[in-house]
């Protein structure tokens, strides 16, 4: 079997020649029932008997990599797929720039590379756990299907990282794979590694914000790892990015549909004040702004410290590059380069230049913020098209931060430094309160299960999935 031939008939579908590596096959087949136990216990509730119109990876050919059909959730074919190898691929950055890409783990980078893979891998099951109850309150079968699609693909991304751990890190890797099923989102004793993946996702507005903001962080992290000089990691992440695009689509269109419905109701009832629309059973724009503030700020923390020797070491070693490294016009080593970052200076914020190598996290965060801003502008176009005087905005990067330079201060969404007393007095104006969350939850008392029907608080999508109509039976119930 060639390196890109796909064995779909195997117990674990793959294109990595599992049948020729008995030790690896045994390790993964031993882990598989544990994964399925985790899925039953921590995955989507009450989904075992559902038939869901899902896409399943069957190839790594960009022209036909996915197959759509009805699948019972526990029978989804989680597999291991790596993007096709690039002939004579070279390490594109760092001190090993120009050397042949590694096909095995370099001994001197073994522990740090394992840490990178485990940190990324831990996020995948975490999001499934965060979203496990949302099916009970889905706004439509279309949305329920999209939720389950995100869930099964996060599960497959976990398989992708576990494959790397088992294939290249021996006993240490197997122990790490076991541990990823033992940690759980929000568990007080064994939480997930990154705090954003311990936050609850109790309602569908939270889910759509999560898939827009937090899955977008995943896009940038995976793209950086896809530049890695360790070729199996690079190829794994390149294929994961193919699936990740749908998750962000779910987020941007989901929030957009909520905004559209709110604007429609405001026009229908001639409501000028966005805060006055709650009595009509939709989510008011100020509450949407609060949710945006929360999920954006929490996702910013995922990029880590503004100045990081770890990030510098990853880059110098050739393990984790920058977003779209090949398109950047510099020496790809950054030995003398500088980069402008924000820092706290007394009672204000200022920009300063720092060595680019240690500012790599902030560089990636800047690109992420710019990408988020494009989506927010798309939402604002919906509001403008309805003639409503309201604009959603990304808060300043210093707002509501728990990691990095701004974790020790309080700042308003417009970047003004606050005293603790000022924060205590006003933060309820900027972040969702218990009352806000209770109101949003009150709009979602039960699932909408009739094909084509939508909950009152969300507009229908512009089109269905895989050229199917919006009123297609995306989920079948026994």
TrEMBL record:
InterPro entries per the UniProt record, alphabetical: Aromatic_CoA_ox/epox, Benzoyl_CoA_Oase_BoxB, Ferritin-like_SF, RNR-like
Domain of life: Bacteria
Record GO cellular component, one term: cytosol
GO aspect biological process, one term: phenylacetate catabolic process
One Gene Ontology term of the molecular function aspect: oxidoreductase activity
NCBIfam families the record matches: benzo_boxB
PANTHER family documented for this protein: 1,2-PHENYLACETYL-COA EPOXIDASE, SUBUNIT C (PTHR30458:SF0), PHENYLACETIC ACID DEGRADATION PROTEIN PAA (PTHR30458)
Listed name of the protein: Benzoyl-CoA oxygenase subunit B
Lineage, top ranks: Bacteria, Pseudomonadati, Pseudomonadota, Gammaproteobacteria, Chromatiales
